[in-house]
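Action item from last week, closing it out:
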Amino acid sequence: MCSIQKFRWSIPAQAALVSLATLIAVAGCSTTGGTRSESRLPDDAPPVSYMQVVRSNSGPLQLQIALRELRPAKDSGPAIWLVAVSHIGETNYYEAVQRHLDVRTLVLFEGVSDRRTRHPQDSRAGPRLSNNELMKGRDDSVQSSLQSTLASSLGLAFQLNALDYDRPHFQNSDLTIPEMQALLSENAGSGQAQIPGAPGKSDDQLSDLVGIMDGSSVLGAILHAGVKLLGSSPKLQALTKVAVIELFGNLEGDISQSPALPSEMKRLIDVLIQGRNRVVVNDLKAELPKLRKRDSVAVFYGAGHMHDLETRIRSELNYRPASQLWLTAITVDPHKAGVTDAELRMIQSVVKWQLQALQPKVPAEAK
């Protein structure tokens, strides 16, 4: 599916696709990854960001990612933990995430593949994949992904290399690539067109996005080469970490509502975010009645999914926020890397400009 693509799009459309790839690649005081900060939440609190920036007077800057506990409004079912994750981070961060997931009764995790793994597999399709095979593949392709390249260049770990998914209570809860393609086509076999637009156009965008993520397209190869250069200098690494922390830590709301995205890109994100989130909520509806009140379920997905997921779970399952735990995913001390105050202000200015264009509209009461 990921053959080399021609540049069919305008420059702004290509820039939007690169921005989306960057969002996917990443998505969330002590200077050690995995720092924990726990708090209670009022049950009427509106959905808020799952990523935040923590600043220290001594210099270090942190990106923290939330793990948020939801409880049934009528106190008659198991807890649901929305475990947001940064796809790149420090090893201690992933160790803390693994510990949290391992004590849950059930983990519904994110994992797109080209084969069905959510239900019993057709014997004609070959042996069933293990969870690690689903997430990492049977070859070294994961090592050439944009996410893995970015993690390596910044001296960080990549989620799929840092976590063990082969746990009996881990269950894939996601779309397959053919299912995503069907949603992106007006002529899907089900006849239920969910994405309006020119036939085949969004499907081409999905192929192009995959080409960027795995480096098989021209644009993807260029982006991968640029990302590899980040590892050539500790100062460049630090500046990039600062940009990542400032960008994602200050991003609020549902990214699919960003005014900066072209209409075709919004339709693609509707499948990448909302379409896959619908699968998770449907799986929760099927699994929750089987569990006891003292049990707990973790929904383990990228941080960019969580605003929409929490909204759906609250409205469709009648759950409310109870508590949240913040884990430090990325830490950087720019001054130790030789970054000047002027360079920091420049990075922050560029990020602020990006956020003004990319930032979804957030209701005043949710800020």
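Closing note: Strands lie at 36-40, 51-55, 61-72, 79-85, 88-89, 106-109, 157-158, 170-172, 296-302, 319-332.
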